[in-house]
Structure prediction request, 150 residues.
Amino acid sequence: MKNKRQTKIMNILKNQQVHTHDELIDALDAEGVKVTQATVSRDIKELGIVKVPASDGSSIYSVPETASESHKSRVNMVSDSVKCVNSAMHTIVINTFPGMASAVAAAIDSMSCDEILGSVAGDDAIIVITKSPELAKEVEKKIKAAFRMV
Prediction:
């Protein structure tokens, strides 16, 4: 839940200008995510979000490049752990080496894919559920590309 909320925050800040916590809370609410001001404040701190000058002279929240690069470093750390990725219907199954599924799932969660409804990691396998069979094929391709399996 936290990863998905923080991913939504990053997507919102990349796609629109947000000046205040209240504006961010409203934008999250429009995405179907209910949060408190305290939660947004914690997320901003954890994500390293900063205020930067906007073109109109006001200041807006911005995601520093290092936050978006953290996804790449997470994927790079575990890319050799993925054995195979396959999809069927709404589901993607990712097989990993024993003990690596949680780390790979965390890297996938950081990919900020709105197509993913959720994922469950065991010891050596991850199940990812998407919104449609067509999206499952797309996400499968994204995962394979991210883990250099293409």
The first strand starts at residue 50 and ends at 53.
